[in-house]
Write a structure and sequence with these properties.
The chain has 369 residues and is α/β, with parallel strands linked by helices. It has helices spanning 18-33, 69-81, 94-104, 116-122, 128-141, 150-159, 183-194, 212-230, 270-276, 292-299, 331-341, 350-356, 358-368; strands at 3-7, 35-41, 53-58, 85-89, 108-111, 144-147, 167-169, 201-206, 237-242, 261-265, 279-282, 303-307, 323-326.
């Protein structure tokens, strides 16, 4: 097996956000194909790791992004451990990986989760031009790059003159190898848990609600989309909202209880909710990159209704009838798409799992390292 060293720049164990989950699951499945060591933040929970070595060398404070002592420490680990390649999650520690590569001679790979400067620009951060300059530098210095979306890869090639030969696709993966056989059972379980009638369409929204793009999407559901759905008097449904970080001023969505809204908070078995759901809503308007929760929802058999921005990054040709997109900010069309779908009879195509199943992804990446 190839010996690989990876650096994960922020806490990801246990995971709560899509970004954390992406790192955790990618490294877990990569470790099945390689002999993997990961350098992470000291606040990670090592008890959740079973198949790779986790070194808690990164400080929990922001100073970890400028800790020059890591250059020598990681270089020594590369030499004594016999590592053949270095993977950098996100561009934030690209400077460190570049210097370690120069000292040791091993290639380094940049695993991008978004075009980061675009994400922060869409969120109104003043310092996005600084990140843009640094991120472009990192792309050019890396030996190879993994891209989460075809759009990000095309942007790098066209706008930053990155050779396409340096680029590889690495989408957010799913742990389920095929269409679930227990959708009816899971729907009954979740419906019973929340007092939902058997003839009501179960609609799901999920995400880390302290993240502004997700919170904005939730407010669009509450204030724009749901009132339009309610106007369709013959449509029986409930919308379950899952996710931690809901602002206190929304009072656990108590004022929306009579408007078909259920707030479930953070749920440990989110896969059960994905499997139970008839529809999944993704009215995201900003944030960049792929919406990982949407990838999982389709894998577990839900039909996704998404804005064009929300559908960014997903490989649409493998989704079949399970992805419905509407223009951004067209909430009338969004609500109509929901009521038109109701309980979808379509199943997720086999080609979807061929592309997004984690084991397939890890094997493809390991063969290229």
């Amino acid at each position: 097996m190839k010996k690989i060293l990876a650096i994960a720049p922020y806490p990801y164990l246990p995971y709560f956000s899509g970004g954390q989950k992406f790192i955790a699951q990618f490294l877990e499945h990569l470790a099945d194909e390689t002999e993997l060591t990961v350098i992470g933040v000291e606040t990670n929970d090592p008890s959740t790791v079973s198949n790779y070595r986790l070194l808690p060398w990164l400080k929990k404070t922001f100073t970890r992004y400028m800790d020059l002592r890591l250059i020598g420490r990681i270089s020594r680990e590369v030499k004594t451990g016999g590592h053949e390649a270095l993977i950098c999650e996100h561009p934030y520690l690209a400077w460190l990986c570049w210097l370690v590569s120069k000292k040791t001679g091993i290639p380094w790979y940049l695993h991008t989760h978004n075009i980061e400067y675009q994400r922060f620009r869409s969120m109104g951060k003043w310092w996005w031009p600084i990140l843009q300059f640094y991120e472009r530098w990192a792309f050019r210095k890396a030996n190879k790059l993994f891209f989460i979306t075809p759009e990000d890869r095309a942007f790098a090639v066209k706008n930053w003159n990155i050779p396409d030969t340096k680029c590889m696709d690495l989408p957010f993966g799913v742990t389920i190898p095929g269409y679930p056989s227990d959708k009816a059972v899971k729907k009954q379980e979740v419906s019973t848990r929340h007092g939902i009638a058997p003839d009501e369409t179960l609609i799901l929204f999920n995400g880390l609600l302290s993240y502004k793009p997700n919170l904005d999407a939730l407010m669009a559901i509450l204030e724009k989309i749901n009132p339009l759905i309610m106007a369709s008097s013959d449509f029986r449904y409930r919308i379950i909202v899952c996710g931690k970080g809901l602002p206190d001023n929304l009072n656990a969505l108590q004022e929306y209880k009579e408007q078909h809204i259920i707030y479930a908070g953070f749920v440990e078995d989110i896969e059960s909710y994905f499997t139970a759901a008839d529809l999944f809503l993704n009215p995201v308007q900003s944030g960049g990159g792929i919406k990982t929760k949407m990838v999982e929802a389709i894998a577990y058999g839900a039909t996704v209704i998404a804005t064009e921005t929300g559908a960014t990054g997903i490989l649409r040709e493998v989704c079949g009838e399970k992805l419905i997109t509407v223009p951004d900010n067209d909430w009338t069309s969004f609500a109509k798409a929901v009521t038109d779908q109701r309980e979808s009879l379509f199943v997720t195509p086999h080609s979807y799992y061929e592309y997004y199943y984690w084991k397939n992804l890890a094997r493809r990446i390991a063969s290229r390292l």
